[in-house]
Amino acid sequence: MDQETAKQLLLDGGTFVFLGVPQETEFGIDMQCWNTDEDFRGIKMIPPGLHYIHYSAKNTKTGDVAPRSGFMHFFEKKQFLVKMWDKSTEDMSTEEISEESVQRLKDNLFNLDRHLGPYPYDIWQKWKLLCSQITAELAAKLSPKNGIIRASLELMSMTDEERPRGVKSGSQDSETTDQEPKATEESTSKEPDEAGDDAVPGQSEAKKPKLRVTQEDKENAMLPDLKAVPGTSLRFTAIPRERFPAGAAPGDVTKHSLDQSYTLELMIAQQDEPLHIIGELQFAYLCFLIGHSLEAFEHWKSLVILLCSCDDAIHKYRSLFFHFIRTIEVQIDEMPEEFLADIVMNKNLVYKKLREFFRTAYVSKVDGRLLTMIERFKDNLTDKLQWDFTGLDVDEEDERPVVVNLDEAE
Questions:
Q1: Which of 33, 61, 252, 305 is the most exposed place for a label (fewest CB within 10 A)?
Q2: Cα separation of 52 and 284, whole Å?
Q3: How many CA atoms lie within 13 A of 379 on its CB side?
Q4: Which residue did the predictor score with more confidence, 139 or 170?
């Protein structure tokens, strides 16, 4: 870090004090992570803006590391944030630190300073690109209500009323656990005269087909019904299921099935502004990349697929797609290698939808700076990762229209 930057961060940078953290705990900020020593007290010189603080407790006897936990926080200039470690829960304490305690630490900053590690400034420029559209308000809106983002969801048992297998029929309760297979077999064992017009005369009960209950069904029935502990789930925007307007003509149904701009419009309507879609894409990616949340990865993938499936919206929301290209380009650059390999080897939906997105740009009238960015993105993927995007003007084998000869069909 050059001296001018260091001086500026000393003046304007934030400070995160984390007291009582056990030695060898995995602690990190943004994309950097360390194992703490006994002198660790926190991080200093944090650039103003959004940051992701994360940690994992480590069992010093077995070497086992707990699933990662963390939180996003928007640091103001010179902000002084203090948290405590709770030994009983082996987690960050949820208790608020009194203003008097915070002030004492500020007054003792000269002695505290040598126990604070400097922010890893070499990651700052890339970090800003990864979270450029995540505002403080958006981060708070998408984070769990309790503020803690966890790699593993906290689960609890459902009540009888919440269980998906529990149903009520008339005045009697019918549990479809152990009783369901029995009830199914009985329903397929009626006498011929009770089975309706489709029954075969003279067919014996023994020859009637019975629904088999597999071992997997039995094992699944024995599993407990669990749900996320209230306040612990990430609060992503639900992607609308509607693909076309109600009462749409058959031709419009076909159009909207091929072009999901209508679905994107519905999702944008749920945001304060269109670019919050990109902010949510960035938030989901960081919760996956840093927070190790598979739930976040699935949402990121769904958003990428939706944005790559639009045609009309590219022209209407040029700024949104401009930032989409900038965002996904740096995201793929930071994606773990095993996920990149899976994208190509298995030709999963992300790879297919990127091909579809580039094809849309190829056949439509996308022009100017946006087209230049799309072409550069495609070329970079080909050069760095050897991804094949040739033949964009030709339909994929499984996407070609099926021609039916009506005369032969008759």
A1: 61
A2: 12
A3: 6
A4: 139
pTM of the model: 0.79
93 burial type by CB count under 10 A (0-12 exposed, 13-18 middle, 19+ buried): middle
**CA within 13 Å, CB half, 89:** 9
Torsion 154-160-166-168 (CA) sign: negative
Q: What does the DSSP 8-state code read for residue 29?
A: E
**Count of CB atoms situated within 10 Å of the CB of 140:** 14
Angle at 381 between CA 376 and CA 384, to 5 degrees: 115
Assigned CATH topology for domain 250-399: 1.25.40
Could you state, in order of their start, the residue ranges of all structural domains in the chain? 3-130, 250-399
Read out DSSP for 276-312? HHHHHHHHHHHHHHTT--HHHHHHHHHHHHHHTT-SH
Predicted confidence at residue 246, as pLDDT, reads 83
Looking at residue 212, its pLDDT comes to 65
Please determine, looking at this structure, whether the domain spanning 3-130 carries the CATH number 3.30.70.1150. no
Tell me the pLDDT tens digit for each residue of 211-232: 566 776 666 666 666 666 777 8
Contact (Cβ atoms closer than 8 angstroms) between residue 188 and residue 196: no
